[in-house]
Write a structure and sequence with these properties.
The chain is α/β, with parallel strands linked by helices and about 325 residues long. The chain has eight helices and 13 strands. α4 crosses α5.
C-alpha cells in the first residue's frame, strides 16, 4: 500500500527529525582540490603520521574512505590542521594511486592479504649467516613476493664474522640478485652502512627479515639520528624477539632515498601470488613459454622450457631456480 499519493510535493513528505540538523543526503563526495599531499611514515593505533612539506602531522582516515586501507609509503591527500602542533588532528581524505604494493598472507592457505608497504621500489631481504641460522625458504618466498610486486630484490647478509657467505650466495647466483655482506665490526665503524647505502640511493627500500637477523641494527646504522629498539636472539629457540612493532619510513641522510623498517616476520604466505607472474622475473626464460600448453605450471612433462634450455637459449640453472621459486608457494615455510 502506497503511503503517499502519486503526485506529492515537498510539503507532503514527512521528514524524520534529526538533532544534528536536516541536511539532505547525497552520494556526491567533496573532491578536496585544496588538500595537501603527503607521505605516510607510520601507522600507530589508527593514527597516521604523515610528512607534509618537511613537518610531520597526525591524521586519521576520513569516513568517506570506507574500508580502504592506508599503509606506510602511501601518498595521501590531507585536509584540516596541518600545523603539526601538539593535540592537532588532520584527516586523510584520499589515497593516491600506488606504483607498487608489497603484500603477504599469514600462510599459504590464508586468503586475507596484508599490505606491508606501498610505493616501494626495492625489497631488501635481510638474513643472518648465523645466530640465527639462515632460512633459504623464507628468502625464496620474499623473492617471489618481490617479483610479483615489481620490486627489485636486494640480499643483505649480516654476521659474516660468524659464518661464511659463499654457500648461500651460490644458491642465488643464477638469479642475479645483487647482494651486500656485512659483519659486526663493519657495522660499528660505519663501513657496512656506507656499502648498503650505495644500494639504496635515490629509491625507497623496504627491509624485511625474521627477528634477530640485525635488520633494525642496520637501519639504525643507516639513519643514526633515529635509533629504534633492538633485541637479542633467544639462546634456546634460536629466534629473535619482536622489537620493531610497526613499519616506519625513515629518510636517508641528505635526502638520498628512503628506508622502511618493518617488524620481523616468521612466515611469508604467498596465497595472493599468481604463479604465472613469477616468470616475468626471468626474461631469458619467458620467451620459451610461448610453446607451453595452456595453464602450464612450468614444471610438467609438456613444458616448453625444457626444450628452450636444451636448445641453448638459457642456462639450465636458471630453469631450476624458477621451478624452485614456483614450488616455494606450495611449501610451508618450515619445510
Amino acid at each position: 500500500m502506497r503511503r503517499y499519493g502519486k503526485h506529492t510535493d515537498e510539503d507532503d513528505v514527512r521528514v524524520r527529525p534529526n538533532r544534528k540538523g536536516n541536511r539532505p543526503r547525497t552520494h556526491i563526495r567533496p573532491k578536496h582540490e585544496d588538500a595537501s599531499e603527503g607521505m605516510v611514515l607510520t601507522v600507530d593505533r589508527g593514527r597516521l603520521h604523515v610528512l607534509i612539506e618537511g613537518r610531520t602531522i597526525i591524521a586519521m582516515k576520513a569516513r568517506e574512505l570506507g574500508r580502504k586501507g592506508v599503509v606506510v609509503g602511501d601518498r595521501v591527500a590531507v585536509v584540516g590542521d596541518l600545523s603539526g602542533a601538539k593535540d592537532t588532528l588532520a584527516r586523510v581524505v584520499r589515497v593516491e594511486e600506488r606504483s607498487s604494493v608489497l603484500r603477504r598472507t599469514a600462510d599459504d592457505d590464508d586468503p586475507f592479504e596484508r599490505v606491508v608497504v606501498a610505493n616501494a621500489e626495492q625489497l631488501a631481504i635481510v638474513t643472518a649467516l648465523a645466530d640465527p641460522e639462515p632460512r633459504p625458504r623464507l628468502i625464496d618466498r620474499c623473492l617471489v613476493a618481490a617479483f610479483d610486486a615489481g620490486l627489485e630484490p636486494l640480499l643483505v647478509l649480516t654476521k659474516s664474522d660468524l659464518a661464511p657467505a659463499d654457500d648461500l650466495l651460490e644458491t642465488y647466483r643464477t638469479l642475479g640478485v645483487p647482494y651486500v655482506v656485512t659483519n659486526r665490526d663493519e657495522l660499528a665503524d660505519g663501513q657496512a652502512a656506507d656499502r648498503v647505502r650505495e644500494r639504496l640511493a635515490d629509491r625507497t627500500t623496504v627491509f624485511v627479515g625474521h627477528s634477530g637477523v640485525g635488520k633494525t641494527t642496520l637501519v639504525n646504522a643507516l639513519v643514526p639520528e633515529r635509533k629504534r629498539a633492538t633485541g637479542r636472539v633467544n639462546a634456546v629457540t634460536g629466534r629473535g624477539r619482536h622489537t620493531t612493532t610497526s613499519a616506519l619510513a625513515l629518510p636517508l641522510p641528505d635526502d638520498k632515498g628512503w628506508v622502511i623498517d618493518t617488524p620481523g616476520v616468521r612466515s611469508f604466505g604467498l596465497h595472493h601470488v599468481d604463479p604465472t607472474r613469477v616468470i616475468h622475473a626471468f626474461p631469458d626464460l619467458e620467451p620459451g613459454t610461448d610453446g607451453c600448453p595452456r595453464a602450464c605450471s612450468h614444471d610438467e612433462p609438456d613444458c616448453a622450457l625444457d626444450q628452450w634450455v636444451t636448445d641453448g637459449h638459457a642456462d639450465p640453472a636458471r630453469l631450476y631456480s624458477l621451478r624452485r621459486l614456483l614450488a616455494t608457494r606450495e611449501r610451508r615455510e618450515g619445510d
